[in-house]
Write a structure and sequence with these properties.
The chain is mainly α. 72% of the residues lie in helices and 0% in strands.
Length: 151
């Protein structure tokens, strides 16, 4: 190999490593946004209105527009959307129950009540058959009061 060919190889390798680093950085930002930011935006919207986020309603509306006009197809979309929203609300409730980021137990209880309020119409639509624990299927994390923590 000549010096020029070696230089081109090293340059191409450096560009490839830089591109890989940029791609990894972009993906991590995307993943963090998806896992954390979207969750807290949804919680904020539910806490403020007691209703599911507008994005979830928009997904339902798009699915309804794609469905045919028969009552059976509309019912299928309604049931699918209700199940998806219940699953999302239960996952959020589980996060709230386990999270150490909540200010206090009163705020946690208030947010869990809002999540239950947002969940009720969907459970009713399904005939009350989907009664979850509100903790995403997991046991809530035990929290200790500030005075009970070791020093």
């Amino acid at each position: 190999m000549t010096v020029t060919a070696l230089s081109v190889f090293v340059l191409a390798f450096a560009v490839g490593i830089a591109a890989l680093g940029l791609a990894a950085s972009w993906y991590l930002r995307f993943a963090v946004r998806r896992m954390v930011s979207d969750k807290y935006h949804a919680l904020e919207e539910i806490a403020g209105s007691g209703q599911v986020p507008a994005d979830w309603v928009r997904e339902h509306d798009v699915a309804l527009a794609r469905a045919g006009t028969s009552a059976d197809q509309v019912r299928q979309v309604e049931v699918r959307s209700a199940r998806r929203n219940i699953r999302r609300l239960d996952a959020l409730a589980g996060h709230v129950a386990r999270s150490t980021l909540m200010a206090d137990d009163e705020a946690r209880a208030l947010l869990l009540a809002r999540l239950a309020q947002a969940r009720a119409p969907y459970a009713e639509l399904l005939g009350g058959t989907s009664t979850g624990t509100g903790t995403g299927g997991r046991r809530p994390r035990r929290t200790r009061s500030a005075s009970a923590r070791p020093r």
